[in-house]
Amino acid sequence: MMKNRRFLCSMLRGQFSQRILFILILAFFQIPLFAQQITVRGRVVNSDGTPIPGVTVMEMGTAKGVITDADGIYSLTVSPAASLVFSFIGYNKEEIPVDGRTNIDVTLTESITNLDEIIVIGYGTQRKSDLTGAVASVKIDELKGRSIINVEQMLQGTVAGVNTVSSSGLPGGNVKINIRGVGTFYNTNPLYVVDGIQTRDISLINPNDIESMEVLKDASTTAIYGSSGANGVILITTKRGAEGRPSVEFNSKLGLAHRGKKIAVMNAPDYVDFVLDLKGNDVNQSFLDNIDWRRVNRTDWQDELFRPAFQQEYNFAVSGGSKDARYSIGAGYVDQDGIIITHNYKRYSLRANTEFSPGERFKVGENFTVSFSNASEAIEGQGNGNMLLCALRIPPYLPVLDPDNTGGYSRVTSARDHNDAYNPIAELRLRDNKTNSLRILGNLFGELEILRNLRYRTSIAVDLERNDVNTYTKARANAAFEFPSILDETYSYGNSYIYENVLSYANKFGLNDFLVLAGNTLSKSSGRYYSLTATDFTNDQIRIIPVGTGKINNGAVGANQSAKLGYFVRLNYSYADKYLFQANFRADASYNFAPENRWGYFPAFSLGWKLNEENFIKDNLTFVDQLKLRAGWGQSGSDLIPSYGFSSSISSFNPDYIFGSVPVTGAAIVSLWNPLMKWETSTTSNIGIDAALFKSRLQLTIDYFIKNTRDILIEYPMPSSTGIGLSGGSEGSAWRNAASVVNKGLEMTVNYTKTSTSGFTYNFGANATFLKNKVTDLGDGLPIMAGSFAGNAMTRTEKGHPIGSFYGFKMDKVYSTQAEVDADNERARSLHGPDAMYQENAQAGDIRFVDVNNDGLITDADKTFIGCPIPKLVYGFNLGASYRGWNLSANFSGVSGNQIFDSNQYWLEGMVIPFNASIEIKNRWKKEGDISRIPRAVSPDANQNTRVSDRWIHNGNYLRLKVLSLGYQVPALLLQKLTSNTASNLRIYVAAENLLTITGYRGFDPEIGEMGDNLVQGVDWGQYPQSKLYMFGLEVKF
Predict the structure, then answer these.
(1) What stretches of 122-206 adopt beta strand conformation (E)?
(2) DSSP tag of 386
(3) What's the CA angle centered on 938, arms 935 and 941, to 5 degrees?
(4) What is the DSSP string of 731-765?
(5) pLDDT at 653
(6) pLDDT (tens digit, 9 = 90+) per residue, 463-474?
(7) If you write DSSP's letter for every residue of 292-342 in order, what string do you get?
(8) 8 A C-beta contact, residue 812 and residue 850
(9) Does residue 316 form part of some domain?
(10) Which of 294, 360, 590, 818 could form a disulfide with 844 if both were Cys (CB 3.0 to 4.6 A apart)?
């Protein structure tokens, strides 16, 4: 045994000595190489001799480089035989050999145009100048300095035709994107294609990993994705490695967030007076017994709920490669606290992109992203299910804590306090909620040049997702209830696989240039979920069933599965680089439909004419660098409905029947079979113009489109008399193609950049989308009512009106005197007889509603459309300036022409239940002769002052300063001295987000999304508001 150990040690010592010797020899041979390096210095100027700061100076074939300082000066240590590459936006790139020189001054000439920029399109790339469809590129560099957690946030206010709404300010919260309007009643999410991988969810993608992003907006560009392209397509390319030495990048952001607004509610004395007024002689004696204490004790529940929130983000990346192998690896970490207590979001991400060329004609590679997130979810329901609303409604005299109650927090009781608002601090502090999500998104690909210009590419992609939601709430007393401890646990997973093959051939004959592309796609996805609820745990520290001895209340299991098969072809043709033509065709089969209607066919074509290449433009309008006309038409489809939606489905229900003495669980058909169900199809017509003027300083794009979506699927409820549905009166449903919607819009984008002779550069960019949405068909013509509010529907989707329009009564005024009420009733009796009343039960101080049909009576026939949640105008603009290393930028976004249904106002100004209320009700009608827009405090509400009406409808216009950023680029020479030539770029900046919002809306935040589907949009249920964020950032490159 000892001999073996001695032999092993001797061998290791020998290997160690050999390795040391090898390293020393390698270092010896490296000494001459380092000795041969020289330092090249110089200045970069424009044609007027003005220094250009910020020019990138790279050693060709490596990742080594610097950026010129405020005086245009650079210094870089390179090989004497190297070549330097000088590049800067708006100028032509220069490649200059060093030839042993130590001083090289360079003059850059302004580029006439950037039309040779390469744009990613479906299954390929194209020169920007050759685009014939509506494609918009997101300028990733302009988004630096923003705290972007979700990729979707990169689109807000930056792309015409795209409306981006943060439905919640919750850390890691959802962002809703609509491209060119709302064209269906349910799922309007666009298709995302990440490095060729198709997905509907990119919430776990690290925005710092993105190199480019394009938005395909019209059917001539989305039709090649067939059944997935009806809602638009967003193409994302992550960062790639380049030939050269390793390049290392690191950036960090630290920020502090605060609530943006506080709602003014009544203090304790005002609230007590309100309760006495509302309840009158019905006020509880226990309330009166402690009335002095109630007037004195004061709790600011909003201050208890909100907090300053710290957030941090770190990203690291390394890239490089050789002629035969290239790599890019990135890692990121985000830790974001919410401005509401207990809320937090963490995300860990890792990305690896590699590419190998084992031969001149063959290339293989992979793109993989792995993300893991840990989040504490918000409580954003309705009523007592919404902690923000609870903080507004709970009496201000109640303390936060009460050790005598189960759980240790105070509570209201109906008998003592006349309301049942939950203590929001108790609900949050006693609730431990964690959502763990794992996402793996990646593909493997191979590309072979079979013959010259003939290429074949194959890839297989995976999208794997795992979610584990665990919520444990301790036993507690809240409002009138004693709640036991409860555990809710849900586990779900989903797997998607996509296999693609693409064959392309490109060639040029004389003035004819063409590309033909054909391919097929096979995809399959499946998922499953498990949920379980248990109560009455004996130990809060043991939350495992059955170890924690919790009583299992209920559980559920579900599954889904779908598959698609598609074939596609595209032809691109240009003549004389002036006249452009593109045609696409795709055929898809989706297993969400019955075999009779499984296949969908989606054609598209587009044309382009480069007017700037015509002599009559070249000779007469020399300031025109580009002028191109575009026109296109195409169709794309959608199958975004539940799997097997065409077939009948069966569901079990709780034991409702007794056989003998045993309760029995049964099953019933809950959806009706419909083999005729088919694709939703969007047909888009688009005309556009692209222009670049004055050496491309001014760039302009205008598009007009008509998007007509037909055969929209509606889930119709089935009456219980059909036998479809669960017991207890729950209705079943059936899917049916019945509706059509048209969206018409005008999009405009303008950008202007100018650099003065002093080196001062400024830029301005703006985009705007004018949109009209209208339902053109509803099958049987019956309107769709949706959204429950005070027992009535809030929205009505009807032919001739926008989707999900607000529908109800119109408020005229508050009756000032009883004589006004009597006068209305007298007119009603003159028209309809002695028993008629204009408004039943109306008295002085109640709301007078408008008699829309002018029949002298207020009935349901007087309901009308009172607002629309869809903006008529979505816009954004940005301002920027830079000088001698300093840069300042501001980004704005806004909407106009939409309305918001303020559900919170019902609770804060409805005055039916004595919750705490808005200070506005201090100006309510109180006595005969008062003039007010706020009715009297009365319970019960016999006149239904709180009914659905335009009393709750408000203008949703807003303009928001989304980002204000100030940064400084450390001069190249100073940076080299500070870092001993190891760092090539260093930038520091400070930024503020959501610093200013101009709006007339009185709620927390005018940026309101949808709740569930597109039939109920723009309703403020008390969503988590956007925060103001102040941030410091650092970017460094080695």
Answers:
(1) 124-127, 135-138, 162-166, 175-179, 191-194, 197-199
(2) B
(3) 90
(4) -EEEEEEEEEEEEEEEEEEEEEEEE-TTS-EEEEE
(5) 61
(6) 999 999 999 999
(7) HHHHH----HHHHHB--EEEEEEEEEEEEE-SSEEEEEEEEEEEEE-SBTT
(8) yes
(9) yes
(10) 818
Per-residue DSSP letters for 962-996?
EEEEEEEEPPHHHHHHHHTT--SEEEEEEEEEEEE
Q: What is the pLDDT of residue 373?
A: 94
Task: Please enumerate in sequence order all residues whose Cβ is within 8 A of that of 705, keeping only pairs 6 or more positions apart, or say none.
Answer: 134, 161, 180, 217, 218, 684, 685, 686, 687, 743, 744, 745, 747
Whether the Cβ atoms of residue 925 and residue 821 lie closer than 8 Å to each other: no
574, part of any domain = no
Closest-CA residue to 763 (of 885, 888, 884): 888
d(CA 357, CA 241) in angstroms, rounded, equals 13
User: What average pLDDT does the segment 235-259 reach?
Assistant: 91
Least confident of 39-43, 88-92, 562-566, 787-791: 88-92
Residues 313-333 have a mean pLDDT of: 93
Under 8 Å between Cβ of 729 and 720: yes
Distance from C-alpha of 239 to C-alpha of 266, rounded to nearest angstrom: 53
Which of 454-463, 512-521, 965-974 shows the lowest per-residue confidence on average (mean pLDDT)? 965-974
- CB count within 10 Å of CB 931 equals 9
Closest CA to 1038 of 265, 64, 326: 64
At 504, give phi and psi (nearest 5°).
-135, 145
Confidence category of residue 608, pLDDT binned at 50, 70, 90: very high
Task: Match 């309705």 to its residue by tokens.
Answer: 382
Distance (Å, whole) CA 1008 – CA 203: 19
Residue 769 above 80 pLDDT? Answer: yes
User: What's the CA gap between 850 and 839, in Å, rounded?
Assistant: 10
Q: pTM of the predicted model, to two decimals? A: 0.87
On whether residue 208 sits in a domain, the answer given is no
C-alpha angle 581/587/593, rounded to 5°? 145
DSSP label at residue 277: H
Residues constituting the chain: 1038
User: Given 78, 95, 111, which residue is the final one in a domain?
Assistant: 111
Residue 936 falls inside a structural domain? no
Residues 604-617 as b/e (b if ≥16 CB within 10 A, e otherwise) read bbbbbbbbbbeeee
List of residues 6+ apart from 944 with CB closer than 8 A: none
Give the tens place of pLDDT for each residue, 658-695: 666 666 666 777 777 778 888 899 999 999 999 999 98
What is the C-alpha to C-alpha distance for residues 498 and 730, in angstroms, rounded to an integer? 38
- pLDDT score recorded for residue 114: 59
Q: How far apart, in whole angstroms, are the C-alpha atoms of residue 279 and residue 677? A: 55
Strand-pair category, 325-337 with 362-375 = unpaired
3 state DSSP class of 612: helix
Cis peptide before 940 (omega within 30 of 0): yes
Token couple for 541: 């520290």
| Cα–Cα distance for residue pair 273/278, rounded to 1 Å | 9
For tokens 């970490």, the residue is 333
Alpha-carbon span 749 to 159, nearest angstrom: 8
Higher pLDDT pick, 727 / 736: 736
| Residue where one domain finishes, among candidates 86, 111, 136 | 111
Residue 66's CB is within 10 A of a number of other CB atoms, namely: 25
Query: What residue numbers bound the domain in which 394 lies?
Result: 246-360+372-428+470-483
Q: Cis bond leading into 546, ω under 30°?
A: yes
User: How many domains does the chain contain in total?
Assistant: 2
Contact between 592 and 578 under an 8 Å Cβ cutoff? The reply is no
| CATH number of the domain that residue 95 is part of | 2.60.40.1120
Task: Tell me the pLDDT band of 1012, cut-offs 50, 70 and 90.
Answer: low
Query: To 5 degrees, how large is the angle CA 530–CA 534–CA 535?
Result: 160
For residue 98, the Cα-to-chain-centroid distance in whole angstroms is: 48
